[in-house]
Amino acid sequence: MSATGINWFKYSSPQAFHPLAGRMIPWFAAAAAGLILVGLYVGFFVAPTDATQGDAYRIIFVHVPAAWMSMFLYVIMAIWAGIGLGLNARPSFMMAQAIAPTGAMFTFLALFTGSMWGKPTWGAWWVWDARLTSELILLFQYIGIILLRSSIDDLRRADRASAVLALVGVINVPIIYFSVKWWNTLHQGASVSITAAPTMAGTMVTAMLVMMVGFWMYSIAVTLARVRCVIIERERQPSWGKSASLPDVAEAR
Amino acid sequence: MFQTVALSGSRGERLLFSDISVTVTPGTLLAVVGENGSGKTSFLRMLCGLLSPDNGTILWQGKDIRQLKELYRAQFTYVGHLNGIKDELTPVENLTVSACLAGDESASGVVRKALEAVGLGRPIHRLPTRVLSQGQKRRVALARLWLSTRPLWLLDEPFASLDVTATSYLTRHLQLHLSHGGMVVVATHQEIDLPPDCIQRLRLTR
Amino acid sequence: MSQPSLSEALHGVVRRDLLLAMRHRSDVAMSVFFVVIVASLFPLGVGPEPAVLRMIASGVLWVTALLACLLSLGRLFTADYLDGVLEQTLLIPQPLAVLVVGKVFSHWVISGLPVVLLSPLLGLQFGLSGESLWVLTFSLLLGTPTLSMIGAIGAALTLGLRGSGLLVALLVLPLFIPVLIFGAGAVTNSLAGIGSEANLSLLGACFLFSLTFAPWATAVALRIALE
User: Fold this and answer.
1) Chain A, 154-183: which have a CB under 8 Å from a chain C CB?
2) Which is nearest to A198 in space by CA: A140, A117, A124, A88?
3) Do A238 and B13 touch (CB under 8 A)?
C-alpha cells in the first residue's frame, strides 16, 4: 500500500478519497472476516459452558460486541456531524451519513440477539431489561436521523439538520442509559437483568474482544463502501465546482 | 457603505450566480434585475444573512457581516416576498408589533399615520388583515418602511401587487430615504421612477 | 440603527403570540379536550377496577400530557414560517435562543398550562388523592415546559417538511423519555409511600438542562430550516 500518511489534506477532497477508500476496503473486509470467524469459533466452541446458563449464554459473543458497536458508532457519527457543522465540511457530513445505517444495523442485531438470549433463559421473547430498553431507544434515534435526512430534499439542509439531530441525540444517550437504569430499579418486579453477563472466564473475554475488533473492521469496511456511493451520488452535482470525473468510477461497478 | 466581494451562491445543486462584486454608497439604490429564477431572492437573503453564500463576503462599513451578526441586523429593514404579518391581527396591531420588535416608534398615532401614508384609510385600520386584498396586505407590510430609521432597506419585489397610487407613494418614500443618505437594494422586474444618477443596476444572469 | 432591547423583543414576541391565542381560543380548548378524552380511553380499555386504575394512573396521565405536547408542536413555528413572521423574527438583532424561549413560553401557556391545571381533576378520576395529586400536578408543572422546550428542537428541524407530524414524533420521543421516567416515577413513588423528592429533583435538573441548551439547539435548527 502506498504511503498515504504523507499528505492527508489531499484526501480530504471527495475525488481523491474515493479511490483511496476503494483500495482500503478489501484489507478491512478481510480483517473483519478473519476476526469474526476466529471470535465465533472461540466463543461457540472453545469457551467453557457456563454453570448457570448452559450453552444458551453463547449468544453474548454477538450481543455484547454488537451493543458496544451501536453506541460507539453513534458517538463517532456525532463527532463527524460536529466537525461538519463546525468546519462546514461536506466530507464530514458524508461520513456521518455513511455510518448511520451500520450503527442502526448493530443496534438491531443487539436487540435481536438479546431477544434470542431471553427466550431460553427467561422464557420470554422480550423483557424490559435496562440494556435492551436503552438499545431500543437508541434504535429509534438512529432511525430518526436516517428518516430526517431522507425527508429533506435540499442536500445542505439535510446534512446540517441531521447533524444537529445527531449531536442532540448523543447528549441524550447517556441520559437515556441513566434514566432507564433508574426506571428499572424503580420497578423492582422484572429488574433482574437477563443480559447480566456470567462471570467471565479468560477465553470468554478474549472471544468478546476479538469479536469487537472484528465488528470494528467490518464497520470501517462497510462505511468506506457506503461513502464511495455517497460521493458518486453527490459528485454529479455541478455546484461542487470541480469536474466530475472519477477515473475509478467506471471500474468500481 | 455596503459592499459585496466576489459573492457566489447556489440554490440546492444549481449555481445561481458567481463572482458578484458591487458597492452601494449612501444615497444610492441598487436595483437587482433578472429573469424569474435568476437568484434575485437568494441574493437578497444573502444580504440579510439568512442564506450563506458559497464564496465571497458581504461587508458593512468594511466589516464582514458574519462577524457583526446582531450589530448588522440592526442596520437594515427587510421586506421579503412573504409579508411577515399575521392575518388574525389588524393592520394597526401588526404594524405596532413590527415597530416594537424593530425598536422603532410604535405609538398608536404614529402607526396610524404610517398606514395612511401607504393609502390605507382609517376604516381599514381595525379590520382583521385576513379580509384585506393582496395589495392592501402588501401595503401593510411595506408600512414598516415609514416607521423605520435604519439606513439600509432590502426589498424583494416591493412593487408586486401594488397599484399605481401605492407604487408612487412607495417611490416617493424611497426617494426621501435616499435623500437622507439611506441605501436601498431592491429586487424588481419593474423600472423605478427615480433620477438615474441614484440608481445602480445589477443584472443576475444564469 | 434602531434596536429593541432584549426585554422589549421578548415582550413583543410573547405578546403577539398570546394576542393570537386570544383570537383562537379553540387552541387552548383543543389541548384540554384531547387530554380529557384520551385519559378516559384507558378505563374504557382496561376496565374500571379502581386498584388497577390507581396503578396505571401515573403512567397514563403522564403519557397523555406528553402526547398532547407532541401534537401541539405543529403549531409552534409552522404558522409563522408560512406567513414570513418567522423570517422576520430571525432578523431581530437579539439572540435568537432567547426569542425561542419566549415563543416556547407562550406556546406552553396555551397548550401546556391548561393540562397542568386540569391534572388534579384527572388524577381524581384515576383514584389519586392527597399527596400524590400534588406530586402529579407539580411534576407536570416542571415537566410540560421541559417537554415543550425539547419538542421545539424537533419542530424546528422538521419545519415545512411533508409528513412532519409523524416525523417530529419519531425525532422527539427518545428525547422525551427521561422526562417521562422521572415525572411518572415521582407520582408512582408518592403512591407507594416512598418519597418523590429524588424524582422531582431529577425532573428539575432536566428542566434547567433543557432551558440552557434546548433553545440554542432550536435556534440553530431554525436558521438551518430557513436557509
Assistant:
1) 156-157, 160-161, 164-165, 167-169, 171-172, 175-176, 178-180, 182-183
2) A117
3) yes
C187: nearest CA partner in chain A: A186
Residues from chain B contacting residue C4 (CB–CB below 8 Å): 100-103
d(CA C30, CA C26): 6
Q: Which uninterrupted H or E stretch holds C79?
A: helix C74-83
Q: What angle do CA C223, C207, A159 make, to 5 degrees?
A: 25
B168-182 residue pLDDT tens:
999 999 999 999 999
User: Residues C97-131: pLDDT tens digits?
Assistant: 999 999 999 999 999 999 999 999 999 999 998 89
B73 contacts chain C (CB < 8 A): yes
List phi, psi (to 5°) of B158: -70, -25
Q: C11, C85, C94: best mutation site toward chain B, by most B Cβ within 10 Å?
A: C85
Look at the block and give the residue holding cell 499528505. Answer: A7
Angle, helix C164-192 to helix C74-83, in steps of 10 degrees? 150
The grid coordinates listed for C195 are 418519597
**Whether A147 contacts chain C with CB within 8 A:** yes
CA pair distance C60, C181, nearest whole angstrom = 12
DSSP codes of every residue in B102-131? HT----HHHHHHHHHHTT--HHHHTS-GGG
The ipTM, to two decimals, is 0.91
Please state the φ and ψ torsions of residue C148, each to the nearest 5 degrees. Answer: -60, -40
